[in-house]
Amino acid sequence: MSCGWVADRIPLYFYGELPPADEERLAAHLRECAACNREMERQRQFAAALDSRRAEVPPMLLEECRADLMAAIAGGAPLGVRRPASRSPRTRLREALTGAIAGLGQVRIPVGAVALVALGFFAARFTASNPAAPAPSDQVFSTVRSVRADDPNRVEISLDETRRRVVTGRIDEPDIQRWLLAAAREDDPAVRVASVDLLKGRAGVGEVRDALLNALASDSNAGVRQKAIEGLTPLAGDPMVRKILQQALVGDDNPAVRMQAVDLLVARRDDSMVGLLQGMVQSENNGYVRLRVEKALKDMNASIGTF
After folding, report:
1. What would the pLDDT profile of 101-131 be if each residue is shown by its tens digit?
2. What is the three-class DSSP state of 207?
3. Which domains are present in the chain?
4. Strands 154-163 and 140-151
5. Is 66 helix (H, G, I), strand (E, B) or coil?
6. pTM for the complete prediction?
7. Three-class HEC string of 264-277
8. Alpha-helix runs per DSSP H in 103-254
9. CA distances (Å), 47 to each of 40, 41, 116, in order?
């Protein structure tokens, strides 16, 4: 079970929405994984923050917002707003949103959030169904889900559509970092390699460090694991980093990853590593890795064999 799989399901686990088998697997993983426990703690803090906010929503607030929004979109002038005679649908929608929330100033923030959810729903409905709305510039990918003939001359085709969006920015911007962290858990290994390669220079950031540890411990692609080790190099003295490196040293199926783990672990003298390295001399089946381990033991003035 990967940490990415666990992270994606922690909100469902927290609210008791996982199937029993998945719930048991996730709970077992949490007992073993410090990084996922931190993710679980963030979920608890987020839920507590939501629960701490209380507001009394006026019964007709949502209906009033809906009515104002739809009237403004249709070209009317609710809320005393004067508008030019000719406006694009996008401009009318923006003005509608601005006007509809203008009266919420005396309502506490959570109520405003409820209203914005409703406005977002209606905005999506409008932009999706209005034929006059300008076509977006981003590429749209469509999948045909069903085809049905209403009569000999008419056909109804049901489509699922996704829209590609391009996001640009500096790597130290919070939104860009958030997308890179999400990319590190994508199914496509090429995307994971590229994202971890970009993140490795920011290992000092807590969330990035956790993502690199998760990648080294559980990613199925050796290239991703190698990039993760490169990123963890400045943190070679961190106890959690050393623990994951030791796991990679004895359990990773890629010799290059094992050699990287040896080099990083012995970069700092640690006599507690002697027994582990001596055991590897006896069990390691790759000649290059074994030579690297033997050299590390000699540099530590330790015997190669166990007695």
Report:
1. 444 444 444 444 444 444 444 444 444 444 4
2. helix
3. 3-51 (no CATH), 59-166 (no CATH), 174-299 (1.25.10.10)
4. antiparallel
5. helix
6. 0.50
7. HHHCCCCHHHHHHH
8. 109-129, 174-183, 189-199, 206-218, 222-232, 239-251
9. 11, 10, 20
